[in-house]
Design goal:
Helix Hairpins, 26 helices, five-stranded antiparallel β-sheet, OB fold (Dihydrolipoamide Acetyltransferase, E2P), D-amino Acid Aminotransferase, Chain A, domain 1, alpha+beta
Length: 737
């Protein structure tokens, strides 16, 4: 490969890996399988080694994936939380052992072999035996504080049994069992909602939920297996740590092997591969660690991973079959998604006839053609994926796929024109084809199903099939029309055919009517999200709901206009900058003029930041502002708001201009007698206060309950007032002082 071709391939791989990291770590919706992702990283590492002049300090081969998301407080790990190097073959595993043997001057090294749980890495902090914090790996040195959600894990003790270190970071994996995963998906199937893809994605998405009540409903589990910072040191080996974790009453992996020598390691991996089918959780490999802690320290680590441990990953179950055709589905935002229609094949306990192809660009990248033999992967997935084709075995009649030509440039549902656009939505990301007709029946059904989903208004029972039938029969045009559908109509709704009727039933209809009545009182942020306003996700909807009283106020929002004005000023400043590369200055006089202009622009930008945009997060950016204002001013947007007014539905935002806690900052710690943490936080916000994750001199109050941790000590050290729930309620009634 020439340097020029290597440079292009390296750029392509870095882009591909960056996208995969975003989908895996931040959205819990990966497109690439682990095997494909690891192969891409391996290829990139090999190219960077072969062409060192093309290596980069910020290469994904040198850094840890970042799982931090908006909405959580960031916390620093006392000891960096590293990732693991991995391999899929025995030769590389033996090479790992040989490197350690050479480094440590001996061959009979002792190891532990543990199941590699397919979940989300987390670090727990216990102080004087009390659980005080849970933090995700994040970017290694700091992660997201998910303590509130971690407290919902029933097997996680609030206090360690027996003698414990003064302070210890204990590392482990949060996961969802197969049984719980099936239960949740069964509920979603009954409600005709989209199924979750696999337990790992569901666990990762759940721990990052901002609603801890929803987290509690999903029954997360945890297994602990590692140690970060510890004071004083109490563990001499990994096998000793496993025993101590169990003695402290912590949930641990159900089996591990303490062995000596690489042959015994390989035998243990084989035994684990045989046993793991009976485990309650998903395992995608084995983790091999040097047992002795002193030897671990001597072996050291890179910026990304310890040199004394490696993950041996089992290859996922795959099967080969024939790609018979590619059909197109239309989602609630109009995105056209290709679906593989396969010659049925038995894989991982079920017969597979359809699989995801993600998007058209992915089909081209993998050179997948209709008629090809393809490899599909399930590996615990509910939704199988097409991994690759086999060009060497391609039949003469295999045809390339072109989405535009496949649908003749029109939406397969409504016949409207389609357009190729840049998207960053739940259904797709990157470039995709989109139906331009907002009133397309597929989009209407998708929006109605989403409107009723648990993450939106929680009107259970109106899933995909029910939503599609309500739209098909003309009962619902826009989601709010559901309120005009009588219970009798819902009860007699035929979800089957004339020959094989399947009546929805009075019981289900009554539940929908009750749930939609409850939804009337939900806040603006829920309704804004439920109505599928373009570019407005859960976090953005929450921020907009906290800064606007009603839909009418949002439609004319000075804040959103200020966001657009700032974006305009920033763009102008970049263009007029004296050192602008895109628009070079023509003379010294021009530079001087630009300098004065940029100073004025800086003042205007600063005035916006200090005024209408004070405290507005980056989530509410120009794209959100533009799409929100345009949608609410559009014909469909005005139609939706008109229907809400006729129904007497006027969702209220959680805006507070003044309240008893205005200007006050609270920190919560411990378990309150009656209030859940999120309930206390909502009361503080509703009264004009703020909630912080850490105690400082600027903290107004620490609201403490049972088993309060280090935050209580910090408050006492700084002289910050500490109050209990009773005092908190009195302040709410009488006014903060």
């Amino acid at each position: 490969m020439t340097p020029a071709r290597a440079q292009q391939r390296i750029a392509d791989l870095r882009t591909q890996i960056a996208r995969a990291d975003e989908l895996y770590y931040k959205r819990a919706k990966p497109e690439l399988s682990d095997f494909e992702y690891d192969a891409a990283k391996r290829e990139l590492a090999d190219l960077e080694e072969k062409f060192p002049q093309l290596a980069a300090a910020d290469s994904p081969t040198l850094r840890i994936g970042d799982d931090r998301v908006q909405g959580f407080v960031e916390v620093a790990h006392r000891q960096k939380m590293l990732s693991l190097d991995n391999t899929y073959n025995e030769a590389e595993l033996r090479a790992f052992h040989a490197r350690l043997g050479k480094l440590l001057g001996r061959d009979d090294l002792a190891y532990t072999v543990e199941p590699k749980i397919d979940g989300l890495a987390v670090s727990l902090t216990y102080e004087d035996g009390k659980f005080v914090r849970a933090v995700t790996r994040g970017k290694g040195d700091r992660g997201d504080d998910v303590t509130v959600n971690a407290r919902t894990i029933h097997s996680l003790p609030a206090k360690l049994r027996g003698a414990a270190p003064r302070l210890v970071e204990i590392r482990g994996e949060i996961y969802i069992t197969f049984e719980e995963f099936k239960r949740i998906n069964a509920e979603r199937a009954a409600a005709e909602e989209e199924l979750y893809a696999n337990p790992r994605n569901l666990a990762a998405g759940t721990i990052k939920q901002l609603d801890s009540a929803e987290v509690a409903r999903r029954k997360l589990e945890i297994a602990l297996y590692g140690m970060g910072y510890c004071e004083p040191e109490v563990v001499e080996s990994q096998s000793d740590l496993q025993k101590r974790l169990k003695a402290w009453g912590l949930p641990v992996v159900e089996k591990y092997w303490a062995v000596r020598g690489i042959d015994a390691v390989w035998a243990a991996i084989g035994e684990l591969d045989h046993l793991r089918a009976g485990f309650a959780y998903g395992t995608d490999g084995a983790v091999v660690k040097l047992d002795d802690r002193d030897q671990q320290r001597e072996a050291g680590a890179t910026d990304k991973a310890p040199r004394w441990a490696i993950a041996y990953k089992f290859k996922p179950e795959t099967a080969r079959t024939r790609l018979l055709g590619i059909t197109i589905q239309v989602g609630k935002t109009g995105i056209l998604s290709p679906v593989a229609e396969l010659e049925p094949v038995f894989l991982a306990g079920s017969t597979i006839a359809r699989a995801t192809l993600h998007n058209e660009d992915e089909i081209r990248r993998k050179d997948i053609r209709v008629g090809d033999l393809v490899e599909i992967e399930k590996a615990g997935e509910v939704i199988p994926a097409v991994l690759r084709s086999f060009p060497a075995e391609r039949p003469a009649g295999a045809t390339e796929f072109n989405l535009f030509d496949a649908v003749s440039g029109k939406c397969p549902v409504c016949g409207s024109k389609i357009a190729r656009i840049e998207v960053a939505a739940e259904e797709a990301e990157g470039v995709a084809w989109k139906c331009q007709n907002y009133d397309c029946a597929a989009q209407r059904a998708g929006r109605l199903g989403f409107f009723c989903s648990r993450r939106a208004l929680a009107i259970d029972g109106v899933g995909g099939v029910v939503a599609a039938k309500l739209v098909e029969l003309g009962h619902v045009e826009d989601p709010p029309d559901l309120y005009d559908v009588p219970v009798e109509t819902l009860a007699t709704l035929n979800l089957g055919t004339a020959d094989e009727p399947r009546v929805f039933g009075e019981k289900n209809a009554t539940k929908i009517v009750a749930a939609r009545d409850v939804a009337r009182g939900l806040p603006l942020e829920k309704w804004l999200y439920a109505l599928s306003v373009p570019d407005v996700g859960e976090t953005t909807a929450r921020e907009l709901g906290r800064r606007h009283r009603t839909f009418a106020e949002l439609a004319a929002s000075p804040l959103l206009h200020a966001v657009l004005k700032k974006a305009e000023l920033v763009a102008q400043r970049e263009w007029e900058a004296p050192a602008s590369r895109k628009n070079p200055a023509k003379s010294e006089a021009d530079k001087a003029r630009r300098k004065e202009l940029c100073a004025r622009l800086d003042e205007e930008i600063a005035a916006l930041d200090a005024g209408p945009l004070a405290g507005v997060p980056a989530d509410v950016g120009p794209a959100v502002a533009q799409s929100t204002l345009e949608f609410l001013a559009s014909v469909p947007g005005k139609r939706l708001l008109s229907k809400l007014r006729k129904l007497g539905i006027d969702p209220q935002g959680t805006v507070v201009t003044a309240g008893v806690f205005s200007g006050k900052t609270f920190v919560l710690t411990g378990t309150l007698p009656t209030l859940k943490r999120e309930e206390a936080e909502q009361k503080i916000l509703a009264a004009g206060g703020k909630v912080s994750g850490s105690v400082s001199k600027k903290t107004s109050y620490v609201l403490a309950g049972e088993e309060a941790g280090s935050k209580l000590d910090k408050a006492q050290e700084l002289g910050v007032p500490v109050i209990d729930e009773a005092k908190f309620e009195r302040l709410l009634r009488s006014g903060a002082s």
